[in-house]
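JOB MANIFEST
job_type = single_chain_structure
chain_count = 1
residues = 225
[input]
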Amino acid sequence: MILTEFKPMEELLEKLKEEEKIFIMGCGGCPEGADTGGKAVLNNMKSELEKEEKTVTGVIEIDFLCQKVLIRSRIKPRLDEIKNADSVLVFSCGLGVQATSAVIDKVCYPALNTITFGGITGMWQGTERCDTCGDCILDWTGGICPYTACPKKLGNGACAGQSNGKCEIDPERDCGWELIYNSLKRIGKLDRLNKFIPPRDYAKILPSAALRKTRLWALDEEEIV
């Protein structure tokens, strides 16, 4: 299981202020276990966005948003709703946002932050990787995480060492920021490269003290009141 927390509503509204029509997607896997997903959560967000005079073109929950094949299959009946949207709001961990971004040619905004649960989250066969940084910025980087795609974990790239699209640390590996550039170009959002991404706050990586007191954090312990 991968642990997620809601992004503050104020942050989401700031991100979406230029977006008039939004399609909402949710993962029916890990977020449901963390109480950050499910149909009730998605429909509540729909209501909140409509209060802000946004048009929600559609809402869908997919069993596992980290599976690109499953995403492609499930969105086929909803392609018109997605096409009519300016962007997509995704309730998922970083893996799901990355997978969704790879499938849908629109800006995909993460509605959640992924935080560390400690230990190993399980086997994952896809190419996407999440650094569980607690402050997801995938909407600025074309759905490609700079902290996992770039061995140097550069928040603002590319460095001067890349050559012919390859990383200077591992010449057989694609430059992470070259991938970000190509992804932003694909969705017509190269202007997002002008955004300065501030150094990340490592205090956000760990779950909040309140969450660490619950059974979700320690399943074999009694909940602390």
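[summary]
The chain has a mean pLDDT of 89.
The two ends are 24 Å apart (CA to CA).
exit_status = 0
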